[in-house]
Design goal:
The structure is a homodimer.
Chain A (H helix, E strand, L loop, with lengths): L2 H12 L6 E3 L6 E4 L4 E11 L11 H17 L4 E11 L5 H18 L2 E9 L5 E11 L14 E4 L5 H11 L6 H11 L5 H10 L2 E6 L4 H12 L2 E5 L10 H7 L3 H7 L6 E5 L4 H10 L5 E7 L4 E6 L5 E5 L15
Parallel strand pairs in A: 4-5, 9-12
Antiparallel strand pairs in A: 1-2, 2-3, 3-6, 4-6, 7-10, 7-11, 8-10, 9-11, 12-13
């Protein structure tokens, strides 16, 4: 079973039948009723040692921050505001207390920055290594929540930042390549301490102009395929428009990797992926600019299924490649996101 | 740091300041506002392979059921009804798919029985072994929620069933002792497939007669100490009243263990621990009987701090022993609950 099959198997058993549930399995968050027009958004993400992080090069403060960011990213991607956090911390006997205090310090600092705080959880012994699971609860207006399922044919597709940087940074860290190079610092920081686009997500949702949105955690090829499946549409991406590929060139050369592959299949970008009428470009760009960010058009939603990458050859011809679900999969890939 | 110090350290950093939060760290569940007089209860528990379960003798269906029971037990212990479940499943590469399907089947079956269902979660690779974290969301009337903090001097203390059975069952399983003995089946089943007292908890809470309540997960000595600390009181337990000790005698003899220690310090009983005016005995017993259960008085709340065990010697004299926090601690004990 791959990751998608596992989730589909669980979803098929789950059998949801409650009027207080607005959205169950299949989006960034589950959505349950709060009061009047307000809802609670619920998301859960786990970080496991030697899978999601390597203690040799991941400072504990940054890991604590990341544990929060990867979760609040899901809240922001539906237009919500993070409010509460539950933390389950699994640690080996005789764990390093200074390390743990620094981890908690980074975690609570990030909570404050995103406007949420810890209200409960669990602590357990974990002889197989450190494991941290967070549940984050966010709040939103019910009629402003943006789901994965709203994309429409002829929508433009945007991302909120360059792609593949976190994957490149992880590769540099794994390879032990640490030259004095500011561009590489940026790549490494995207893996070690990603920033979630929570304010941007809230403002895009509040604008009422975005049809579908999610965060990029498993790579564009997989995440866009999820969005298309939920929306009952297909997508065409243009290789020349993938933002950030030029920033990856040096790291790719040094590590022998393919920058386009990082951009399409590298996990953990935690940028927003969203669709809207192409006419909204100026307005949505203005919203991003007010958040200190840029948005980049990468393709178009079409009638159909799947995700196709369009690559223009030197002779002017276009090549089309099916890339749906070519991103990170815990049970197919060996390591990473 | 022991388990309590870890939680206190996190709580000190957490800095809760939100008007929508009725209760944060320090009770069975966090309590957040829903609408009018309704609240959502949130709890999170993790089961880790070789700490909480041994795949050699824990059938996957029963483990799936237990993952739900240990969580909904916290909801019931505050008087709530479980509604929604988030599941984070960490599994090694090449995990046993038949095992996993059986686990999910037990989990969803237990969800149906307790009246809740899965609405989201996460799946990750976990090379160190299986790890499952559930967050359960329950619902309650705000003015019916029973906290740990309401115990009053002269309250009687009850538990909803015999104590130490799960610890004895685990010891028998670990020792490989499997004689054809129905009493032992009962002990083993208490470890493998405990039942959460959710209906009883809801009805005790709805009666308005219970001052403080929690579930027994780390053993009476530790859990009662938590309840006393939250309530600003002390407690006296009577050794002769501990229910279930006689049921443990054979298992204790075979394994060389102390039955009273199992009853006081064995984890994972998942019975309810609650306090009320001693005059309520008849009424509360009737509520339990309607649920097919019995309640057992084990002691009394007193002015002061700590938990004292009163043991009557053969000569009629009483011996008092301080036992607060002598229950299971993940970071002090080697293995178990």
């Amino acid at each position: 079973m791959n990751e998608r099959q596992i989730i589909e198997y669980i979803a098929a058993q789950a059998d949801p039948t409650d009027g207080q549930l607005l959205k169950g399995i299949g989006d960034d968050c589950a959505v349950i009723r709060k009061d009047g027009n307000r809802v609670w958004l619920l998301t859960m993400d786990t970080l496991i040692e030697s899978v999601h992080f390597n203690r040799d090069f991941h400072p504990p403060e940054k890991l604590g921050r990341k544990a929060v960011s990867v979760n609040v990213s899901d809240i922001g991607a539906m237009g919500g505001k993070p409010v509460f956090v539950l933390l389950s911390a699994g640690m080996p006997h005789g764990f390093d207390e200074a390390w743990f205090r620094a981890f908690v310090s980074g975690l609570t600092e990030a909570c404050r920055e995103y406007g949420c705080f810890i209200i409960g959880g669990d602590t357990v012994a974990s002889p197989g290594g450190l494991t941290f699971t967070l549940t984050v609860i966010g709040e939103a207006e019910a009629d402003q929540v943006v789901y994965r399922s709203g994309a429409r044919p002829d929508d433009a597709i945007w991302v909120s930042g360059p792609l593949g940087l976190a994957a490149a940074g992880l590769e540099l860290l794994n390879a032990g390549i640490e030259p004095d190079n500011q561009a590489f610092d940026l790549l490494r920081e995207k893996h070690l301490n990603p920033q979630a686009r929570v304010s941007l997500g809230q403002q895009l949702a509040a604008s009422g102009r975005v049809h579908a949105m999610m965060d990029l955690s498993d790579g564009l090829a997989t995440d866009l395929a999820h969005l298309c499946k939920q929306s009952g549409v297909g997508a065409r991406l243009f290789a020349r428009d993938l933002p950030g590929v030029a920033m990856l060139a040096d790291a790719a050369r040094l590590t022998g990797c393919d920058p386009e592959r990082w951009a399409l299949s590298g996990g953990e970008d935690f940028e927003l992926l969203f669709t809207a009428n192409p006419d909204e470009s100026f307005h949505l760009g203005g919203i991003a600019e007010a958040c200190g960010l840029s948005i980049f058009p990468v393709g178009v939603i079409v009638v159909g299924v799947g995700v196709t990458l369009i690559r223009s050859a030197a002779d002017g011809t276009n090549h089309e490649i099916a890339i749906a679900y070519q991103g990170f999969d815990h049970f197919r890939n060996g390591n990473g996101g």
